[in-house]
Design a protein that fits this description.
The chain is mainly α and about 350 residues long. The protein has 11 helices and 4 strands; from the N terminus they run ααααααβαββαααβα. The strands form 2 sheets. It has a two-stranded antiparallel ribbon. It has a two-stranded antiparallel ribbon with strand order 2-3.
Length: about 350
């Protein structure tokens, strides 16, 4: 153990004014540490999506009937609230774990040398999306699990996954101008794939909002058009058709990439997406024909996160950002360091 440094009043004042800069001056994480910190925030985002689904699937959506407190008199769940209160309050507490993971990612990328401002911005974007989704989650409770607010809650989590995935990819790249690895036509095909994937996820929230798992043990209104409920079977079939379109586009993209002799990166990412889609489709069909057992629905929600991440990784693999020479450790004199 080394000696504990003395903390002066000036140090304390500097920490209060700008804690991130204060930490960055005294700590430089390795590249691996920064990458792991960002990956943890991405994993935690997927975890909280699945646990949020568990809240709905166990009928615990109103286990804490109000927000931001659990009840009008108690901030936490009480023993009288039973299993549902524990599940709902536990999911609320995971929001703080997610905030801690995002905060750790922000500190890690801010402390890197040289400071990459773009990475810090991605971190803060994650933080504010988490805050916004926490408020939206409270609104979901206050409006009695209105299915449209539940769908918006999930879609905002999807946006969070997009930012976290992009940030994770950027930690493994430099800040040079991106260099395309494929032609414009191939890139346009991938953008079509991303667009249909977004539509697939959005329609999936409608399937959920019109389906039997309302999120509470009591009757909760489902999505409807005017006074008429949505045709759940019809929406589910539309969801399946969109899934097959995404699979077909992915398969076609793989052949196109092979035909143009694309680098291994885009080919591998497209292969990964195809395999994830097949697994997700298998789970989807099994849950449909077995009357939506809760465990399979939860697995399908996790699969939705993985499909979105895999699709984004295909998009991000279409270009490379070589690390600039300033990022490569070399023997330089003090004057060169001061000018970087």
């Amino acid at each position: 153990m080394g000696p504990v440094p003395n903390v002066t009043r000036a140090d304390a004042a500097q920490f209060v004014r700008n804690p991130l800069a204060f930490i960055a001056e005294r700590w430089t994480p390795t590249q691996r540490t920064a990458q792991q910190a960002v990956l943890i925030s991405l994993v935690m985002t997927c975890v909280i999506v699945v646990t949020g689904g568990a809240v709905r699937l166990t009928g615990s959506g109103l286990g804490c009937p109000t927000w931001p407190k659990c009840t009008d008199e108690s901030l936490t769940a009480t023993s009288e609230m039973g299993f549902h209160g524990v599940i709902e309050f536990g999911n609320r507490m995971l929001t703080y774990v997610l905030c801690a993971a995002v905060g750790w990612a922000i500190i890690a990328v801010r402390s890197q040398k040289p400071w990459r401002r773009s990475l810090t911005r991605y971190g803060w974007a994650q933080f504010w999306i988490v805050m916004g989704n926490a408020v939206l989650g409270g609104i979901v409770v206050l409006v009695g699990l209105n299915p449209y607010t539940v769908a918006a809650h999930f879609l905002l989590s999807t946006a969070l996954i997009a930012v976290a995935t992009t940030m994770w990819q950027r930690t493994r790249e430099g800040d040079a101008e991106p260099r395309p690895l494929v032609g414009k036509a191939v890139a346009q095909l991938v953008w079509v794939l991303i667009g249909v994937t977004v539509l697939l996820i959005a329609v999936g929230t409608v399937v959920t909002g019109a389906g039997p798992h309302a999120g509470d043990s009591s009757d909760v209104p489902r999505m409807n058009v005017g006074a008429v409920g949505l045709d759940w079977e019809g929406v589910t079939k539309l969801h399946a058709v969109l899934a097959w379109i995404v699979v077909t586009l992915t398969f076609a993209l793989w052949f196109v990439l092979k035909a143009v002799d694309a680098p291994r990166g885009p080919l591998n990412r497209t292969r990964d997406l195809f395999l994830v889609l097949l697994a997700q489709g298998l789970v989807g069909y099994v849950q449909y024909f077995t009357d939506l057992p809760e465990a399979l629905v939860a697995a399908h929600m996790l699969g939705s996160c993985l499909v979105w991440i895999a699709a984004l990784r295909v998009l991000l693999s279409l270009r490379e950002r070589p690390a600039p020479k300033a990022d490569v450790p070399t023997q330089v004199d003090d004057s060169q360091l001061s000018s970087v």
